[in-house]
Write the structure tokens for this entry.
Amino acid sequence: MTEAPPEWHISEWLNTDQPLTLASLRGRVVVVCAFQMLCPGCVETALPQMREAHELFHSHGVEVIGLHSVFEHHEAMTPVSLRAFLHEYRIRFPVGVDLPGGGKDPMPRTMRDYAMQGTPTLLFYRRNGDLATQHFGHLPDMTFGAQIMALLAEVEGPDGR
């Protein structure tokens, strides 16, 4: 039996009426992108890819989620700035604001729990909530789509795994 992945630590949710958790998304394939709005790789490649995945796969049982994980330039990347950014870039999928680390720790809590190396980081979860893959950096579109399709094609066993 595999260990359950850590739950996300979110201070605020945007583009959704209710908080999202791994447990509440059980039964759906989940793709999360940890990003920063001042990260060039996130803005140029990761977020457009996530936006397209949301448009293509949401009706097929895939939940696309952004995780705004700020580990630098904290003063510039506030929730107010993030709201304007999401509107400007037409990002309509749910985005959680990763809870800042405690004290002088600049690393957000979810980012630390998953030992992320930076942004963008992609997390792919199976329908049962298990973490299937974690990837730092950009994935080519074909690889990204193939990962989602492979998770959609998985059949759960009698034990839910």
Summary: The longest helix spans residues 40-57. The chain has one domain: 10-153. The radius of gyration is 15 Å.
